[in-house]
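Researcher: Re-running this chain for the archive, since the previous output was lost when a drive failed. Same request as before.
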Amino acid sequence: MTRKGLGSELKRPRPRHPNTALATLLNEEQLSRHFQQHFQRRSQHFGGAPSIDFTVSMSRRSNRGRNSPLSSSVTAALTSDSDDDVCGTRTPDWTMASEQSTAVDSYNARHSIISRSASFRTERTHSNNLVKARRERSYAVFLAILSVGLYLLHMIKEPFHGNYNNSNSWSSSSHRSPAASRLSMSVIQPEDFASSAQLKNNKADDGGLKIIWLMSFPNSGTSYTVRLLRFLTMEYSASNYGEEYGHVVADSVPALPSQPQGPFWMDEPSGVEKGFTYPTKHVLTKTHCGARCAACPPLMYAESTYSFQRRCFEGRRYYNEKGELKKKVDVYGPENVKKAIHLFRNPFDNVVSRYHHQWRYGPLVDQTTKHEGMPTREEFREHCFRMNDWRAGPERVSILFTDEILDLMAKVPCRAEFFRYIEWHNLAFVTSRDLGIPTMVLYYDWFETKFDDAAATLLEFLEVERKGHELELVPGKFYTDYFLPEEQAAVHQLFRLIASRETWKYTQRFFTDEDGKASYSAAQ
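Model: Regenerated structure tokens:
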């Protein structure tokens, strides 16, 4: 069977000649001398046989590149070994010469095959190198495009920490009003300008029921704050998330009839709440906005100011369709949002409370199973380090995490939760400022340390009188000791690094004592 591409001269594979690469290693003169010596050795047993002059011509193929293999040919001429042969006194042995010529032809054929084989191997190597080079260039171009895209995404999603003014430009000056209550609670007043929502729709001044947001990062004391205000005012409250307590059993009812997208009244009250009334001026509405997912990769909680604000207006409506309860997410307009309460909780307590909620109701447990009791400190830390390892890869390639942040938070339990906490509060301040609505900052721990003052300030901000009684708060939900002093110090540095001016102003109290010293240093 003929070997494809190597000519029809070979019927079977032959051993490789030790001088296969001569055509590419020797020049013409050296190759001619090599064949001359070789055939003379082969012809020694033909006494008086004519010698053969070899001429080797070597040239590159015209259609090859500079490094293409040499093509060569061998020609032979019969000459006499003595002057007698030239004068014709001796008759050459033409039979012997014919054999020599046949040998030359055989070597020419073999050398041609070798040259073509070497050429084929070189061409294949050259082709492979070209493919490899193209792949490397394509990969480099892909990385460049990806880097530019991630940079642009970062620029779009990064919240701007300046302030908006009448000239439609950003400035770095602060415009916070002085404290407005006996508790020195901060009420951030808007500038004297029409917000974007008011410019789009002037129905905000029609005298109807308006919305006061309770903006909170999940598990920062939202449920207790809502229920407390319901009992103090004896009025129902609303939520962006349909029914809040227990299982959904009925259609969601909009709090504003002219705004079916949301918010919605909470579950039908039971027991003592049956005596409550519907508010006529302001309805307290729970919203968590965006950037709040738990146990998720950075891609899922990376929010721009627009996407974060849009989720503040998302209403989750449940409705019955042919006996099947379905859910639909709509977005209502900003024109009826008049005020906001910005709730803060100690970040260490908040992170552990988030874990408790996920452990009891979230994706960390089968929905058909109900855990009894609470997980221990060791279980919390084990879970956190497992989450750190699970999300280490996405965090390393995410534009949200710089090397400085990753090095700083490398050994902090549930490090991504602290990043989400800071990001959420940064964007919440941007949202309330962009809407131009008065915003009251409230600390959850005040309900345990200064309840009366906190309740009075809240009622004053809501513009409603106290009609009911207070709701007992379960004390002792503090979890700072779940973290080592060096871990608390790392979280402190993270806040100083990425928190906005407003966020840092209202969270630095969680890391320092009354004397301004680090609160975690005493625990060392």
